[in-house]
Design goal:
Elements (H helix, E strand, L loop, with lengths): L7 H31 L11 H36 L5 H37 L7
Helix pairs in contact: 1-2, 1-3, 2-3
Length: about 130
């Protein structure tokens, strides 16, 4: 932000939005990698309930794909609104937008935190079920 910037708060909001979009893109990449991992043939087939556990994880990853898509839609709408209110001087309208921004930020952070929890659970489980070299 430049000191002469006429609306630094709006620039900060735009910066947040760009970060959310980047974070969700990375989350999508992580989901693809984990799906490939879970669908690979690297697990000890003698592991109790292996198939069921892997299917559960894959199902939960599908839930995150849907959650990510919904968040991307909400972010796109939010970003479009930002463009239309940048010239508005009405404090009430701006206040409502800022509140929606904060609410959306909490949804993005919650999704990220929940995904990190699932990712840790998967990695902890997978680490103990890998085939051993002979």
């Amino acid at each position: 932000m430049k000191p002469s910037d006429p609306n630094p708060k709006m620039d900060r909001l735009h910066w947040h939005i760009q970060h959310w979009k980047s974070d969700l893109q990375f989350l999508g990449d992580e989901i693809k990698f984990i799906e490939q991992l879970l669908n690979s043939n690297i697990f000890d087939s003698n592991t109790l309930n292996l198939f069921e556990r892997l299917q559960d994880y894959l199902g939960r990853l599908e839930g995150f794909k849907l959650r990510k898509m919904k968040l991307k839609e909400l972010i796109a709408k939010h970003e479009n609104r930002l463009g239309s209110i940048m010239e508005i001087k009405d404090g009430v309208i701006l206040g409502v937008y800022y509140q929606k921004h904060d609410d959306l930020e909490m949804e993005v952070l919650s999704c990220s935190d929940d995904f990190n929890g699932l990712k840790a659970e998967i990695f902890n489980y997978v680490g103990g079920t890998l085939k051993r070299r002979k």
